[in-house]
Each structure stands twice: as C-alpha cells, then as structure tokens.
Amino acid sequence: MMLERSRDAKMSRLPQSEARTLAGTVVLVEDDADIGRLVEYHLQKAGFACRWFQTATNVIRETENQPPVVFLLDLMLPGIDGFELCQSIRKNELLRGQPIVILTAKTGEADRRLAIKSGANDYITKPFSPADLVTRVRALCQGGSV
Fold first, then answer.
1. What is the full DSSP assignment across 93-144?
2. Is 145 within the bounds of a domain?
3. Element of type H or E holding 72
4. The domain containing residue 124 runs over which residues?
5. How many domains in the chain?
6. Are 88 and 96 within 8 A, CB to CB?
7. Which of 5, 24, 53, 102 counts the highest number of beta carbons within 10 A?
8. C-alpha 16: how far from its chain's center?
9. How far apart are CA 25 and CA 19, in angstroms?
10. Distance CA 59, CA 93 (A)
11. How much is the CA Rg of the chain, to the nearest whole Å?
12. For the chain, what is the mean pLDDT?
C-alpha cells in the first residue's frame, strides 16, 4: 500500500527497504528549506528516516496510521503555528504519546513555557547543534528525558 503524498510533504530520500531498518521515522515540520535539509541530513546520517512537511496543514491526517518516533516542530509556520499543532497532536488519540521537540528561533522564556504547556517534551533554539539535536531525539526515542 502506497502512502498518500500531499504537496506539503517531503518524503525521505532513502529507499523503502533501507527505511525499514532504521531507528524510526521522525516527522519534521519546518518551512525553511535550508534548515529542513540540514535536519533531514543529520537525522538520516544518525539512522532515522525523516518525513518533512513545510506546513502543519496535513501533518495529523498523514501521520495517524504510522506515528513517528518523534515530532520536530518549528513554531513559526505559515497558517497553523507550531503551538497549535503541538496541542492538536496531544489531543489526538493515536498520536498523543509521541514525543514532541520544538525547534525554533523564538528564544523568549514565555514562548518556552507556552510550548511546554502545549505539550512539548523539549525545546531547542536556532541556531542549534545538529549533534545535540540528534542526541535529544535519540534520548526521547529511548524513553529518556533530555
């Protein structure tokens, strides 16, 4: 069965047979193409498949059947913002247990508190260390805290 591809989704470039042997799929919601490619590259290098969306519009619908091991969400997205998407994930019966990491340029303490209140497990500000990002994703996948 082939997954439906929306115009908002950027699928992993790894062959399907290789993707099954990885540590799991991370869903990245990031509208900046340069950051998206950087994150995708480092996650794939670390053994994760990456499913990349440039808007939040179809993320819930397209991930319910195959929940990711982690959601990585930017806050400043066109249309539905990352706070709202985070809350929607937490309200969804099929997705609510998945870890959520916020990856954003917003450095204010109020934004950090609102993200945690919205259901995020971790908050990383841009610019970020790709190695640190991968370490935090791995920790969340293993049920650890960051």
1. TTTTTS-EEEEES---HHHHHHHHHHT-SEEEESS--HHHHHHHHHHHHTT-
2. no
3. strand 70-73
4. 9-140
5. 1
6. no
7. 102
8. 20
9. 8
10. 14
11. 14
12. 87
Within-domain flag for 95: yes
- Reference 140, options 104, 97, 107; nearest CA is 97
Is residue 146 domain-resident? no
pLDDT, position 22: 60
pLDDT of residue 4: 35
Write down how long the chain is: 146
Predicted TM-score (pTM) of the model is: 0.84
Residue showing tokens 């954003």: 104
Tokens of 85: 């998407």
Averaged pLDDT, 27-49: 97
Q: Which distant-in-sequence residues (6+ apart) come within 8 Å of 68 by Cβ?
A: 24, 25, 26, 27, 51, 98
As a whole number of angstroms, the distance between CA 59 and CA 53 comes to 7
Q: Which is nearest to 41 in space by CA: 131, 122, 115, 106?
A: 131
The answer to whether residue 3 is domain-embedded is no
